[in-house]
Amino acid sequence: MTPQELRALCLSFNAAVEDFPFNPETSVFKVLGKMFALTGLDARPLTVNLKCDPEDAIRLRTAHPGLIVPGWHMNKRHWNTVTADGSLPDRLVRELVEDSYDLVVAGLPRAERLRLDRP
């Protein structure tokens, strides 16, 4: 997955925006103000921090040692750092980004979730 593909994927979700609250090199992708992905798109290897169900996070880390690790500078229970440089199948990376977005949306207040569902 290229940095451009990762950016396009993150921005493809309903109400997703890119922000730079930390520095100009760190892209933070949010939905209604809540972060679901964090990456340095110019970094090599390309990695992305993604929210994850705690049980799935452990399973993924075990299945993909060194490629999916506890979230760097994040709550290690709920976030993984995922290598997105082609070492993992792009399909898996896409699913993990989508899962992260869905987890964040699920945690939003009901009124905000309903706003997202409107065309």
UniProtKB/TrEMBL annotation:
<dbReference type="InterPro" id="IPR007351">
    <property type="entry name" value="YjbR"/>
</dbReference>
<keyword id="KW-0238">DNA-binding</keyword>
<protein>
    <submittedName>
        <fullName>DNA-binding protein</fullName>
    </submittedName>
</protein>
<dbReference type="InterPro" id="IPR058532">
    <property type="entry name" value="YjbR/MT2646/Rv2570-like"/>
</dbReference>
<dbReference type="GO" id="GO:0003677">
    <property type="term" value="F:DNA binding"/>
</dbReference>
<dbReference type="Pfam" id="PF04237">
    <property type="entry name" value="YjbR"/>
</dbReference>
<dbReference type="InterPro" id="IPR038056">
    <property type="entry name" value="YjbR-like_sf"/>
</dbReference>
